[in-house]
Structures are given as C-alpha cells and as structure tokens.
Amino acid sequence: MSVRGIGVELRCRCIETERNVQIARHIESVELFPPTSHCKDTEIIATLKETGQQVCLDTTAPWVKKVIQRMLAK
Amino acid sequence: MSVRGIGVELRCRCIETERNVQIARHIESVELFPPTSHCKDTEIIATLKETGQQVCLDTTAPWVKKVIQRMLAK
After folding, report:
1. Following DSSP, what letter does each residue of B20-58 receive, concatenated?
2. A19, A24, A50, B52: most buried by Cβ count inside 10 Å?
3. pTM for this structure?
4. Parallel, antiparallel, or unpaired: how do β-strands A54-57 and B27-33 relate?
5. For the stretch A47-59, what's the b/e string if a residue is b when 16 or more beta carbons lie within 10 angstroms of its beta carbon?
6. pLDDT single digits (tens) A5-39
7. ipTM of the complex
8. Where are the alpha helices (DSSP H) in A1-74?
9. Do B4 and B15 meet the contact criterion of CB atoms below 8 Å apart?
10. Does B32 contact A35 at a Cβ distance shorter than 8 Å?
C-alpha cells in the first residue's frame, strides 16, 4: 500500500514509490498532482490494469518520465 | 461538459478539449489515459481547483505538454 488515500489530502498522498519497472506495462492510467501547500512534491499515482491497484511512482525516475512522455506522444 | 464519464469506458472519454489556456493555473491534478482497444487516443483529463470540474485537454497542444513537463520537473 503506497497510496495513503483518495480525495482532498492535507498531506502528501504517497508514502513510498514503486521501484519495479515491470509495472510500466500494466499501467492503465496515471494521475499527476502538482505541489500544494500541503505537499511540496509533485505526486504521480498510477492505476494498474486488471487489479485497479494504485501505486505511487517516483517523479524523478527516468522510466517514469519515459512512460509519461510516451503517453503524450500518442 | 467535455468528459463523458468516469470509470471503465468502452469508448473515448473526451468529447471535446478545452481551448482556454487560462485554465492552466486552475489545474489541481491531471490524469493521463493511454490508448486502449476502445479509444485510439491518449486522453488527458484535468480536475480544476475549487470547482472540481473535469475538462479534457488537447494532448497535442504545446501548453498542455508544458503543464505536464512543469509538474514532472518539480
């Protein structure tokens, strides 16, 4: 469980980020939350196909940036 | 109303995309949906601050790409 909860948060949503690059091919959608007064980091939460599980992604990881760039290119 | 609905869709979620660049500063979060067998386009749905309204963004618009790049840079 890497996502704290859904909805309006008064702190960061992500507790830890997913390290397994393999999940890239199981991503159904990706949600980006820019920094707010409650959380200084941009947070990226991916929803996985089939399970619908939500995992936090590391915004600084090259593979994460690549996943998003690839989505934007289509 | 530019978003058809939330949840699993069997067709594209977006009917039309937002043309007003001014909304960029009102974006609370952005959700990216890669192409599927039901919708050949990547779809980007932004949730707006205050109202919580959801609008579709044009994936090819330079300002949209810029909004996302800026989020990734933080």
Report:
1. -GGGGGGEEEEEEE---SS-SS-EEEEEETTT--EEEE-
2. A24
3. 0.85
4. unpaired
5. bbeeeeebbbbeb
6. 655 667 899 999 999 999 999 999 999 999 988 89
7. 0.83
8. 62-73
9. yes
10. no
Residues 1-30 of A with CB under 8 A from B: 27-30
Token pair 């991503």: residue: A27
Nearest CA in chain A to B64: A72
Rounded Cα gap, residues B61 and B38, in angstroms: 23
Model confidence pLDDT, tens digit, residues B38-68: 899 999 999 999 899 999 999 999 999 999 9
Question: What are B43's strand-pairing partners?
Answer: B33
Give how far Cα A56 sits from Cα of A1, A20, A25, A27, B26, Å. 9, 11, 15, 11, 23
